[in-house]
Amino acid sequence: MKNLITKMSTQAFVIMVTIILFIIMYAAGCVVYADKNFTNIQVFFNLFISNAGLIIISASMTMVMISGGIDISVGSQVALVCMMMCDLVMNKHVPTAAAIAICIVYGIVYGIYAGVMVAYLNIQPFIVGLSGMFFARGMTAVINTGMLSIADKTFDVLAKTKIMIPIDFLAKVNKRGMKIYPNLYPSVIIAFLVLVIMFVMLKYTKFGRAIYAIGGNEQSALLMGLNVKKTKFLVYLLDGAIVALGSVVYCMNTCGGFVAQAQGLEMDAIAAAVIGGTSLMGGVGNVFGTLLGVMTKATIEALVSFQGSLSSWWAKIIIATLLAFFIILQSIITRIKAKARD
Amino acid sequence: MKSMKKMLALLMALVLTFALVGCGGSSDDAAAPADNGATEEKTEEAPADDASADDATADDTAEAGDSEGGLIKVGYAQIGAESDWRLANTESFKQQFTEENGYELIFNDGQQKQENQIKAIRDFIAQDVDYIVLAPVVETGWDTVLQEAKDAGIPVILSDRGVDVADDSLYTTQVCGDFVLEGNNAGDWLAQELKDKGRDKEEINVCVIEGTTGASAATGRKEGFAAKADENGWKILDSQDGDFTQEGGQEVMESFLKNYDDIDVVVCANDNEAFGAIAAIEAAGKTTGPEGDIWIISFDAVKQGFQYMVDGKLNCDVECNPLYGPKIDEIIKKLENGEELEKLSHPEEGVFDYKTAADLIDSRPY
Amino acid sequence: MNKETSTLKRMVGHQLFMPIISLIIVMLITVVYKSLFGKDGVHLDLTFFQIQITNGHLYGYLIDILNHAGGLVILAIGMTLTVASSAGTDISVGAVSALCAAVCVRVLGRENVVADYSTGVYILAFIAAMLVGALCGVFNGYLVAYLDIQPMVATLILFTAGRGMAQLLVNGYIIYVRKESYKWLGSFFPHIPLPSALIVAMVVAVVMYLVLNKTALGLYIQAVGINKKASHVVGLNSKMIILLTYVFCGWCASINGLIKSSEIASVDANNIGLMMELDAILSVAIGGNSLGGGKFNLFGSIIGAVTIQALSTVLLSMSVESTQVPVFKALLVAAIVVFQSPEIQRWRRNRKARAAAAGKKVA
To answer: What is the predicted ipTM?
Structure first.
């Protein structure tokens, strides 16, 4: 075991554990809830459909965490962007495409604010995120203290077009004799596109590698000649834009906006990233690991939900335990490796 | 040696968590969760353990299903457990939709988050339930998932609150309190009471503590009462959101008391807010109730509310009957028989005040 | 170079300057608003500062603020120490508050409405709650100090699980306590004019001030926060010190839970302490303490906590929707943090130096 650990990188080992855990849980669900159709491929797809927005946002959070920072404002940003979309499209009659563009511009503006604060004014990212969180949550209420929803043709096409997967053996015939093919939504496709782009960016571009370097050891990065300030600034700027995009995708799932929306989403994103192998100390992380983290969390929720009588608070407790497990695991591995080095 | 210590730490942490959790829970499946957790720990080992532990519970329900073969599967997406009313509502369901009555109930607590409820509905669809009962935490944003239910041919029954969807056919029927009527009833009671006490020619100042912004209960009650206030010429001094909680009611009331010193009546959107408001008023040295300085009108009529009326602190409580179990049972039976249904129905609701509270308090089921 | 720093410059540079100014500004805002938009036309309206005695205890806006701020002040004190010793933002305090309140009420009785209990049981319930709080602190502290885990991630565990555990303890119900004496901690003790939360907060603050400044503990915590390794080399038991700060923070959370539960004479596991961890961290930041650890000023955090509560109360009285209040909190904290950021300080010093140099040349 120890040899395996020292040979593999921490990253790889943790992701391996995550994958194994996910497979075990999902398999257990399939076995135990076979009579409740857990084996239906739609259940697997639902993991993505319901969490498309979270996937994008967690990926962006991963990027920020790799650089050594954190952005706890994302939940509130989601609420604000959803409310903005609803307000712009329905009340101000702005065409959907323009509304999305406006939201992303807002994301960029916020990203600039966060970037300047963290990179140039050297303010703790946590506090910057906190101020952003309060600001966004409050502004959501300023736009409208009630609830809004979107019912616009263009938006509906984006949000509600079901992409059927017409593979017969995957289809199910339900009690009413209806044949239901598994389906996906465009939001999932967008999420995967973003994931791939981010993966490529982080692994294969100079910018991506600079992020890892800065997260790993800022002083060394500076000495190496990397423009730390500019890189950090760009990280937060990108984060703002991607979170805005993720919020729009989230909006496609809910088609509505209200003040308390997505409360606590930032913690979900952080938990997903940590379960996926990202370290809050920076320098370590992988967006596909984060994807696995989101899927794991979703699987746990599905398992509790399919049980049918357990309080849903159990899902939170199990996720917390898993979180504890991964955190401690990472710590142990780091220790083993440090010892192996000496 | 050190890494052994860390492994121990890991196990300790998990055991600690489960010990804490274990001593608390007394839900039906206390055994199963502990097993679940233990297996989470030993990830590399025995998937068999996992399956066998879960099998124990799954078998129970599976057996019941198999032997009856005709159990109606109902998936219930509840809002959460944020107030006494909500808890009574949940209890009513759990008591009504039992196996003896021919149902298999899959219950989901949304923890007051819409995204949780959307996930729950998707899970219900995947489980191929016969009916979905939804208590939507907010009005908007259900189009996509209700469409999925419709495509799967599963009828959706709305409980307590309504949805704001473009296409009405996305849900079959709705059972909820007639919130506007509740607001009206509150206004009518006040008008009658003022007349009885000979105060109907006075200028009456009212403060309103609203419910969570965006909840149809809050909006309905506010509108209903405001309409009567208009009719009777009462002045609404201020109206703020108390979030349906006791703390919210208390903070808002404290603020009102500082800004206005001639409040006659306070209308609270639910009992929990009223408890907070009464506490704030008493702390300010004033009294409430029929003999007091400020009259309090509330909604929900939970048992605690009755207690306050018996104690002479609350004037009037407009009932919002949470016992939807039987009503929805009726609806499902009708749907099974293929009968026609109205789109909207209301449970019986009454108006109670301090005069009758003492007699009725023992018969209050919730 | 001009070595004299005028009293004014020293005041402005002091850490407590910003928090005190913020508090004053918040109070001024309400005075101005009431004076201009009050009922009786434009006049100087100082009713905000009015304090009267009603029913044997003090009553007034200021009293309200101090009363509601009691719990937050205690949380802020606990948070200050964890931040100082380990740059650790303990985000679990809200959930731990709820958990401890649930423990307390469960010890008092097993029913959904607890009607009566003996004083002995009451004391036992309190001790149990405080113990659970401290235990949570041990859990957090162990993870941070001995396993070297990032504080935010370590406390994320209890943040996620804490409320769930509380919910399981109360079986999902809101438990009411009908005994009058239970309410005392959240409002007023009989015959004592000051709000109890305020008294408890003051006691904790004074005791901690003495402990931190009259013993070497304060110095140790700062040393550990500034450089953990160096402190260890010098002979301090850094790990134990960090652990202790988390235990204390957990204990503070339990006190907060008890106060909040007493305020509403019930336990609402969903809502007690909700979001309070953020306000506590905000208080520490407004107080001028660096979130990166090291030197700290307890009074800064206390003033920060009072300022935040004042802001909420003031805005509510101006009929700002409670959901919109966070915008102002954000602006306040952003302004203060920017002003106190090392970069801005450096820029200001450079400006002064350049101005002094230019002045010298001309003169």
So the answer is: 0.82
